[in-house]
Automatic annotation (TrEMBL):
Protein name in UniProt: Serine/threonine-protein phosphatase 2A 56 kDa regulatory subunit epsilon isoform
Matches recorded under SUPFAM superfamilies: ARM repeat (SSF48371)
Residue ranges, compositional bias (Basic residues): 23-32
Organism per entry: Anas platyrhynchos (Mallard)
Ranges for region Disordered: 1-42
Length: 438
């Protein structure tokens, strides 16, 4: 895919935005059904007057023809009626294709007059009321998404807009009159689209806008903040959480140090509570990435983050517990020893509970920590604190657990502890046995 690196390098005082490729993290599922948000049934057929191709007219006439083609592409077709306006739909599709090529190759095509027309054409096509979800029963983890019927046109409009934003001739100083806060708000609403292909394009569009328009950055962050708070505390439904988190991952990566208070607030008050949502599995990888990005920027945030995870630790859902353990391992991979000491007690009390879990996957995931060299080195340095917390759970499992695979893992952990601190290990064994005999 094309190199999608973002804005030119900015002075150090400005947060950088790192680029991400336009390859989505998620795989598009098979299509379930189609729906169109353009609920406009056109009574009579639509007629567009065919225009000559841009390459067939003299270069002096191209700018005017370009504007005419942009205006023609503002006409919206009804894709739910598969038989209507077939010829004109195809004409618009080929015109959009031509516009994509033209803006990519032509020099000098972005005159000041083109900016409002480009934004108008894009707005006419993409901004619409999304169709209501098929039913309240829609489960994004199980059901296939409803795909946008007008995608043959919509995809090309997004492609055109991205090429426009990425054009070497693009001037944010002119564009900011048209790509403003109202535009961004409407763009963010579209992230609730059920169609993963559309959300993938939106992700790139918003990332480019964040990179190019410094004046919109704080506004974009604030609105994402609001979407997440509504999602956590009110609706528990928003399709584009993973995509917004992916954009945030690259934004956090570019934050200037020291971190502003508003960024720390966002971590503690928004990102940590996102762990409580039922549909966590749909966006957990992107959420964990954001958390780790924050901790790599500012290790002093480690304690509040781990205490936050402990507070929201799942009580009844083993699948979520496995996710939490995975995220915790990612955090421990980057933790500084001075921070580890502050949270080792509550952390290993939780890990001891997980090791004792009746759910095989939870116990296994927790025991895998002992295969991680860096975590092992932290445990070894602090074995006098950690061993007493873990010992009784491990010893009991080694004698009583029903699953031989878990028993084998526990034996390895006990063996590691014995090698680290044999004196304490012997004392704990003796105490454990005498307590059992009472």
């Amino acid at each position: 895919s094309r190199d999608m690196s973002s804005a030119p390098t900015t002075p150090p005082s400005v947060d950088k935005v790192d680029g991400f490729s336009r390859k989505s993290v998620r795989k598009a599922r098979q299509k379930r059904s189609q729906s169109s948000s353009q609920f406009r049934s056109q009574g009579k057929p639509i007629e567009l007057t065919p225009l000559p191709l841009l390459k067939d007219v003299p270069s002096s006439e191209q700018p005017e023809l370009f504007l005419k083609k942009l205006q023609q592409c503002c006409v919206i077709f009804d894709f739910m009626d598969t038989l209507s306006d077939l010829k004109m739909k195809e004409y618009k599709r080929s015109t959009l294709n031509e516009l994509v090529d033209y803006i990519t190759i032509s020099r000098g095509c972005l005159t000041e007059q083109t900016y409002p027309e480009v934004v108008r054409m894009v707005s006419c096509n993409i901004f619409r009321t999304l169709p209501p979800s098929d039913s309240n029963e829609f489960d994004p983890e199980e059901d296939e998404p409803t795909l946008e019927a007008s995608w043959p046109h919509l995809q090309l409009v997004y492609e055109f807009f991205i090429r426009f934003l990425e054009s070497q001739e693009f001037q944010p100083s002119i564009a900011k009159k048209y790509i403003d806060q109202k535009f961004v708000l409407q763009l963010l609403e579209l992230f609730d689209s059920e169609d993963p292909r559309e959300r993938d394009y939106l992700k790139t569009v918003l990332h480019r806008i964040y990179g190019k328009f410094l004046g919109l950055r704080a506004f974009i962050r604030k609105q994402i903040n609001n979407i997440f708070l509504r999602f956590v505390y009110e609706t528990e439904h928003f399709n584009g959480v993973a995509e917004l988190l992916e954009i945030l991952g690259s934004i956090i990566n570019g934050f200037a140090l020291p971190l502003k208070a508003e960024h720390k607030q966002f971590l503690v008050k928004v990102l940590i509570p996102l762990h409580t949502v039922r549909s966590l599995s749909l966006f957990h990888a992107q959420l964990a990435y954001c958390i780790v990005q924050f901790l790599e920027k500012d290790p002093s945030l480690t304690e509040p983050v781990i205490r936050g995870l402990m507070k929201f630790w799942p009580k009844t859902c083993s699948q979520k517990e496995v996710m939490f353990l995975g995220e915790l391992e990612e955090i421990l991979d980057v933790i500084e020893p001075s921070q580890f000491v502050k949270i080792q007690e509550p952390l290993f009390k939780q890990i001891a509970k997980c090791v004792s879990s009746p759910h095989f996957q939870v116990a296994e995931r927790a025991l895998y920590y002992w295969n991680n060299e860096y975590i092992m080195s932290l445990i070894e340095e602090n074995s006098n604190v950690i061993l007493p917390i873990m010992f009784s759970s491990l010893y009991r499992i080694s004698k009583e657990h029903w699953n031989p695979a878990i028993v084998a893992l526990v034996y390895n952990v006990l063996k590691a502890f014995m090698e680290m601190n044999s004196t304490m290990f012997d004392e704990l064994t003796a105490t454990y046995k005498s307590d059992r005999q009472r």
